[in-house]
Amino acid sequence: MKKLSVLLLAIFLVSGLKADEGMWMLPLIEKLNIQQMNGMGCTLTADEIYSDKSVSLKDAVVVFGNGCTGVVVSDQGMVFTNHHCGFGAIQQHSTVEHNYLKDGFTAEKLEDEIPTPGLTVKFLKSITNVTERVISQLPEDLLGVKRTQKQDSILSAIRAEAQKDNHYIVQTKSFYSGNEFYVFVFEEFTDVRFAYAPPKSIGKFGADTDNWMWPRHTGDFAVFRVYSAKDGKPAAYSKENVPYTAKRFAAISNKGYMPGDFSMIMGNPGTTNRYLSSWGIDSRMKAGNQSRIDVRGAKQQVWMSFMKVDEAINIAYSSKFAGSSNYWKNSIGMNNAIQKLGIIDRKKAEEKEFLNWVLQSEARKQKYGNVLSKLEEAYTKAYPYSRAAAYLRESLFSGVEMPRIASQIQRLSEKNITTDSLIAEAAAIYKNYYTVVDKATIEVMLAEYEKAVDKDALPEIYTTIRKKFKNSYAKYAEYLFATSSFSDYDKFRNDYRKGKVDFKNDPALKYWRDIETTLKEINSAELNNANDSITDAERLYVAGIKEMAAEKGESLYPDANFTMRMTFGKIGGYKPADAVEYSYYTTTKGVLQKEIPGDYEFDVPAALKSAIVEKNYGAYVDKQTGEMHVAFLSNNDITGGNSGSPIFNAKGELIGLAFDGNWEAMSGDIVFEPDLQRTINVDVRYMLFVMDKVGGAKRLIDELTIK
Question: Of 59, 210, 220, 282, which is the active-site residue?
Fold first, then answer.
């Protein structure tokens, strides 16, 4: 009966659930959000969420690496983040003999936690509005590249001033398309150690098939620890360093959640384009998104054909593959959603509304009257160049590795560096590189680019391939890798020591120079002028939208730009289609239902399967449903960069980590979809269950504050 009542309540609340749009600036919570949040059940004050004068919840939320979020969960600097955020670090430490990707890792003792060079964690110290200072030095008629240069100069001076005589990292960011500016001050820690990860078959369960999909059964989490000098200050790795004494950490709730419960996410959303024009959306679909769909899809097929048969290659390419496939599938979903949901037509309706508002005032006509026509003209001019550049970057520029490696090493050789040092740095560059994979990839990339563009956008190498190699990509690839000194690390090292590396005529460097030349030709003065016009027009357009909203008594949040934001909403499922209704949570039953033994996406580790079959859930089972929850849904507004973000309950206690969005609302970076858009979160109780019953990480669990 209890289960039935819970289910009925879920259905009732889901049917009336509306997502709360907005990635809100932390300093403005008191002014814009806290009253509504408290009305929805939040018990925290604005200062308890964000303060730059006293310790607040924001001090437990960190920038993890270069593109994710994490949360501090103990007073000894333990950090929870997503498995896919820590994937590169886990791969870095993995070998065929010690395959932490495949088998997972548990640091039995503090001394077993593994240093991870290159991985950083940043704590946000303060946010300061410097808009007036910047805008006052930018005349309204200062446009294009001159405005950009002046703006950059002003912001550079502000950064230098903020960074003087301290060890902090300072960033300046533009908001509302160049209408507002803020300074962000961080404390960065570089000694970050790997403490725990589940096997990939848990952390990436479902892999590409389930990516961006609901229902989801992925234990997408990993555990790291921040270390500092004994005085608590950041320090390079040293055996003398100690676990960082956190100023604030998140307590963990073991009580679960119910549909309609308040939820709050704090993190670092990467990029949204909520104020993009209809012409901008069209260009994004046909240039950026379509190039990723076509090129990455073809490249990933090549990579996977090798990864499936060679474990060493699988380890080496796992992180690269994951990075590529994530936004490949995102682009597919976004284009589908834009078309299915009629996003461009909806944007055109908004633009019509804006124009009508403009025409009601002479002052507005003077300021904004030509904005939309300028956007249309600039995007139309830019499109053929933007499309060609997008395909070139995806295929021949970044899709092929060896010529880029050659270019990196050439730049090193031009520095005052010893032979041994250069060879050592080259070894790091060649890490996770296999010639046999790249050789097969280049053939496909050459074909993909030629298929996508007009003949006048083809680099000179296509003439060489036609004349010298009878139009055979395979023969060209054979020649390139057979004759270049850069085809693998051993060949480069031996040739360099013998003085046989020809930095002028090596065929890999000729290829690279040819690609760079073509890219420069595509990025012509005409494209640059069009992009400058787009920048100027978008700044005015967003200023006008803000002004129009203010007249209605509405506040607009700025687009995401990888700065810390807060989003609030509620727990709940959704109805993606007629006669289809999704529950707000998944359970371990679904893990076994999806199981395909030996499959790289849906294999279930024996230890996990045993715990599920025996219902060895311990204290982590949901008290309301009597089941072991895996993931759950909320209507919080997030995007890429929010990966690893903590999702808090009304008391500010951790209930999970955000790790994905849902397929039906993949256009959400452009237009928020209140009825469809959901955040997929891994349940913190599932994380603890896996750590405890599968990973034997009791030491780490004992360090947590669980309520």
Answer: 220
* CATH no. for 2-120+190-205+215-273+561-661+681-701: 2.40.10.120
pLDDT band at residue 28 under the 50/70/90 scheme: very high
Least confident of 47-51, 167-171, 448-452, 525-529: 525-529
Which pTM does this prediction carry?
Answer: 0.92
Q: Which of 395, 643, 645, 667 is catalytic?
A: 643
CA distance 369 to 351: 12
Active-site residue 373, yes or no?
no
Inter-CA distances, 706 with 22, 577, 655, 696, Å:
30, 38, 10, 18
Please, what is the average pLDDT of the chain? Answer: 95
DSSP reduced 3-state for 126: strand
Domain ranges of the chain: 2-120+190-205+215-273+561-661+681-701, 275-399+524-558, 401-522
Does 310 qualify as catalytic in the annotation?
no
Annotated catalytic residue, options 56, 59, 84, 294: 84
- Is residue 603 part of the annotated active site? The answer reads no
pLDDT band, residue 10 (cuts 50/70/90): very low
For residue 20, name the pLDDT band (cuts at 50, 70, 90). Answer: confident
DSSP string over 447-497: HHHHHHS-GGG--THHHHHHHHSTT-HHHHHHHHHHH-TTSSHHHHHHHHH
